Structures are given as C-alpha cells and as structure tokens.
Amino acid sequence: AEVSVGQHWYWQLGGYSLHGQVLITSWIVVAVIGVICLLGTQNLQPVSGGSAATAPKGLQNLTEYITEFIRDLAKTQIGEEDYLKWVPFLGTIFLFIFVSNWSGALIPWRILELPNGELAAPTNDINTTVALALLTSIAYFYAGISKKGLGYFKRYISPAAFLLPINILEDLTKPLSLSFRLFGNILADELVVGVLVSLVPLVVPIPIMLLGLFTSAIQALVFATLAGAYIGESVEDHH
C-alpha cells in the first residue's frame, strides 16, 4: 500500500506554479454551494399564519436553517450592534470549509487520475487554509479600523504599554493557528482513511469515515466561530 502526501498537479501561469488540483476541487465546491443556493431560493414560500401548507420545504427550508444558524453564530460572537454586516462573510467561510471538508470525506477523489498529482479536498492544502486565515485577519482588522479609526491600535497598549509585543504577537499567531488547525485535522483524517482503505478496504474504514464527517463539520464550525470571535473582539468597546 502507498499513501503519498503533497502530490500536486502544477499549472504554470507566467513564472508561477499553481496547484491545479486545488483549483479544480475548489471550483467544484463553489459550484455545489451555488447550485444549492439557487435551487433553495427559487419559488420562495413565505410562512403565513403558521399553515403547514405554506411552510418552506426542501432546499428552501435547508437554506433558511443555515442562514439562521450563521446569523445566530454572528450575533453571539460579534454582538447585536455589528453582527448583521458580517453574516455574509462568516456564512461564506463556514459553507466553503464545510462543503470542502465533506467533499474530502465523502468523495474518493484519488480514483480520478490526473497527469500527475492527485485530487483532494481544498482544505487538504496548506495554501487554501492559509488564504482563509489571512482573509479572516484582514476582516477583523477592517472591522476594528472601520469602526474605531486609528484608535483601534490603542488595543495594543491596553491595559498596559509593556504588553505591546505580546499583543502584536497574538495578532500574528491568530492566522497561523487558524490555518494549521484546519489543515492538520483534514490532512490527518484523509491519511487515516487512506491507510485503512489500503489495508482493510471493506468494513473497518466505515466508522472512521463517519467520524471524519463529524470532525469535518466541527472544524468548519470552529473556524467560523473563531473568525466571528476575532471580529467581535475588534469591534467591542473597551472602557
């Protein structure tokens, strides 16, 4: 049995090498999310008088549940005053990571042969998770500066000026912890499943795959929750 880590299908764009397999699976994930959103928002059925006949059903019910879930998450982490404008960002982050993680747990990407390298979940690549973490960092800096102006940077010397290096280091480590946590968990899950499928291909890997679905969903929730918490920390008023 052979399980390889880091096999990539490189695309050359000018003087740069791109991980083609990550772009392919990312486009597939975005397409899946887009199709579900389009189908779920067609022929919207409003609830009137609590009648079961007019209650949302099917994909509309699913999309409304997800929207309410993300809205409640944003309200809890950011606060009632500022949360609404960040619902689209947190929803996008959560859905992309969730569908990406589940694609790695449910779809046997490796059976699709490429000229070289192999397909895998987008979040199985450190470049994807670092990009998501950097977007989160930009988001919470933007949130703080747009609300407080240059006064946002007072947080680095709060509650005392000697904490400046520690507070700066904390902001630098946030994207690192976000990216490596997500990457490590997804990579480890796919490697474990890959090894078990190679050794005992029938019954034993199934419970591990089910556990992978659960942990994949948890990782998406953790990332979105921490992103919301960081944004909430940036916009909160310090007295």
TrEMBL record:
Membrane topology (UniProt): Multi-pass membrane protein
Q: Which domain of life is it from?
A: Eukaryota
CDD domains linked: ATP-synt_Fo_a_6 (cd00310)
The record's subcellular locations are: Membrane; Plastid, Chloroplast thylakoid membrane
Q: Determine if Kinase is one of this entry's keywords.
A: no
Q: Which GO terms describe its cellular component?
A: chloroplast thylakoid membrane; proton-transporting ATP synthase complex
Which coarse location class describes where this protein primarily resides? membrane
Key words, A-Z? ATP synthesis, CF(0), Chloroplast, Hydrogen ion transport, Ion transport, Membrane, Plastid, Transmembrane, Transmembrane helix, Transport
GO process annotations (BP): proton motive force-driven ATP synthesis
Instruction: State the Gene3D superfamilies in the record.
Output: ATP synthase, F0 complex, subunit A (1.20.120.220)
Membrane-spanning ranges: 20-39, 83-106, 126-145, 182-204
Q: Please name the Pfam families in this protein's record.
A: ATP-synt_A
Q: Does the keyword Zinc apply?
A: no
Single Gene Ontology MF annotation: proton transmembrane transporter activity
**Family affiliation:** Belongs to the ATPase A chain family.
What NCBIfam families has UniProt attached to this entry? ATP_synt_6_or_A
Stored PANTHER family:
ATP SYNTHASE SUBUNIT A, CHLOROPLASTIC
* Full protein name: ATP synthase subunit a, chloroplastic
